[in-house]
Amino acid sequence: MNAVGRILGEVEAELQNLNIKYTVIRTYPTRDFFSVDDKTLYVVRQKLLDDNTYELIVAAKMRKEVL
Fold it and tell me: pLDDT exceeding 70 applies to what percent of the chain?
């Protein structure tokens, strides 16, 4: 399963339907210069652990601001 680049909600639904265990780890920008949309999380990295659990690293979508 390739979850990278997909919305977390879609990935979670698919994993639950397949009865696959997973953990979600949220990552944040190192600086708060750009605002982010905390409601829209995307999978940016995935790892299959030894116990067949997926570890999903997620990040919020950056908001676009027009000046």
Answer: 91
Computed on alpha carbons and rounded to an integer, the radius of gyration of the chain in Å comes to 14
State the pLDDT at residue 44.
96
Model confidence pLDDT, tens digit, residues 37-53: 778 899 999 999 999 99
23 sits in which H/E element: strand 22-26
pTM assigned to the model: 0.83
- Distance CA(38)–CA(19), nearest Å, equals 27
Residue 33's DSSP bridge partners are none
Are 33 and 51 in contact by the 8 Å Cβ rule? The answer is no
| Proportion of the chain in helix, strand, coil states, percent, rounded to 5 | 15, 40, 45
